[in-house]
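Researcher: Quick test of sequence recovery. Tokens follow.
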């Protein structure tokens, strides 16, 4: 700050030397970094999938060799996280492919001269649910899934019912 005399009263609007403030950029939200396109991102960084697969195999080998209980638990958690990330990525990829196929269908209809019809979110959810049920039926896990869902709904219904104490 500028040094001022203590004998003179400080002026109301005193002269202050301005310091240029450093502006921090976050590339996630900055236009200079370009537009995020998941297809291009996946193609560019596809080599990471093979590296992740190697790491997962390495963790599995370490898990088999490990004798320490704490270390084994940590490795198991790491392995679970890796598999969950892999599953989430596959799910996201399926969703992206489904959306692309719907867009292609709409383009074909537009080329034929028909008016394009875009599905609502609820319609998309219904299609997704139907696909999920079909997949569960193919794998033979539909009954167990429905039983779990019934139990979960029963617990929710019980929670909303008045308790015996209040009666």
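Model:
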């Amino acid at each position: 700050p500028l040094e001022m005399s203590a004998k003179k009263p400080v002026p109301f609007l005193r002269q202050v030397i301005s310091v240029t403030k450093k502006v921090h950029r976050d590339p996630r939200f900055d236009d200079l970094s370009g537009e995020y396109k998941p297809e291009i991102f996946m193609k560019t960084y596809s080599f990471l999938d093979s590296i992740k697969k190697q790491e997962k195999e390495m963790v599995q080998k370490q898990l088999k060799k490990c004798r320490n209980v704490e270390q084994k638990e940590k490795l198991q958690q790491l392995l679970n996280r890796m598999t969950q990330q892999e599953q989430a990525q596959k799910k996201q990829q399926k969703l992206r492919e489904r959306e692309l196929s719907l867009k292609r269908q709409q383009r074909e209809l537009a080329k034929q001269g028909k008016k394009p019809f875009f599905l609502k979110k609820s319609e998309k959810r219904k299609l997704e649910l139907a696909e999920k049920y079909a997949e569960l039926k193919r794998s033979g896990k539909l009954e167990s899934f429905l039983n779990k869902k019934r139990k979960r709904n029963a617990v929710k219904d019980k929670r909303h019912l008045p308790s015996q104490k209040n009666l």
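The chain has five helices and no strands.
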